[in-house]
Amino acid sequence: VQLQASGGGLVQAGGSLRLSCVASRRTFYGMGWFRQGPGKDRDFVASITWNGGVTHYADSVKGRFTISRDNAKNTVFLQMNSLKPEDTAVYYCAAESSVSGRYYSSSQYDWWGQGTLVTVSS
User: CB within 10 Å: which end of the chain, N or C, has fewer?
Assistant: First the structure.
């Protein structure tokens, strides 16, 4: 499976961006977004199961970010509103092939996109 992430850019604090991740084929259970800021670990942001659309969010983005999917286009979106400078990071989409319950762990994901940079200025 190949994942292609896009939609990053430079935005002012309080602004919005929409990230997209297109999968070459759909043979996975769910998809997630992670982010890695400068000098930081790669952290969980949000995830969604492909069939039931069950979503999970990191506490830091709840109420601001929304993950969704378009089954017909094998695409997952991350709508990011009320962006803060601390949201600045490279955002990665990832896909997991099986049910684990550990949607928050990067080690659970089998395929990764190349990352897209989000920069939020103050």
Answer: C
With beta carbons less than 8 A apart as the criterion, state whether 82 and 62 touch. no
CB 59 within 8 A of CB 46: no
Residues 6+ apart with CB under 8 A from 38: 88, 89
Beta strand residue intervals within the chain, DSSP E: 3-6, 9-12, 17-23, 30-36, 42-49, 55-57, 65-70, 75-80, 89-96, 111-112, 116-121
Q: Which residues fall within 8 angstroms of residue 118, CB to CB, at 6 or more apart? A: 8, 9, 11, 17, 19, 35, 80, 83, 87, 88, 89, 90, 91
| Chain segment 30-59, per-residue pLDDT in tens | 999 999 998 999 999 999 998 888 999 999
